[in-house]
Write a structure and sequence with these properties.
With 121 residues, the chain is an alpha+beta fold. The chain has helices spanning 3-26, 32-65; strands at residues 69-73, 84-88, 91-95, 110-114.
Length: 121
């Protein structure tokens, strides 16, 4: 858990404590179980709103990054960006991370998308 996540968690706990105290003062006829359930529902609603916001932001980021472009034959020393496709030694390669490395298996920068076809006998 990062420091920022811990601070958010501590803040949430303070809000929960204040909510429980407030509910118990406002409605003394509520049982402890009812107060806990009401508080839990409010917390879950807040968490779901935050998660929904985070997921929506992540989806939008992925949408903006989701572009493919064919760059032709790989050029040594050229910087390639994520989503670019190149050919190298008869294969089609997908760029996963910004790189100027030559495509090959055994690295994370490139993924082999299409192998060359073998000649039939």
């Amino acid at each position: 858990m990062s420091v920022i996540q811990f601070k958010e968690f501590a803040k949430t706990l303070r809000v929960v404590k204040a909510e429980v105290l407030s509910l118990s003062k406002q409605t003394p006829k509520l049982t402890t179980e009812e107060i806990c359930m009401t508080t839990t529902l409010k917390i879950m609603t807040q968490i779901l709103k935050r998660v929904d916001k985070d997921v929506s932001a992540a989806i939008e980021q992925l949408k903006s990054e989701q572009s493919f472009s064919f760059e032709g034959q790989h050029s040594a020393g050229k910087e390639y960006k994520r989503g670019q496709l190149v050919t190298h030694k008869g294969c089609l390669w997908y760029c996963n991370n910004p790189t100027s490395r030559v495509p090959s298996t055994g690295q994370f920068d490139w993924t082999l998308a299409v192998k060359p076809m073998r000649a039939s006998k």
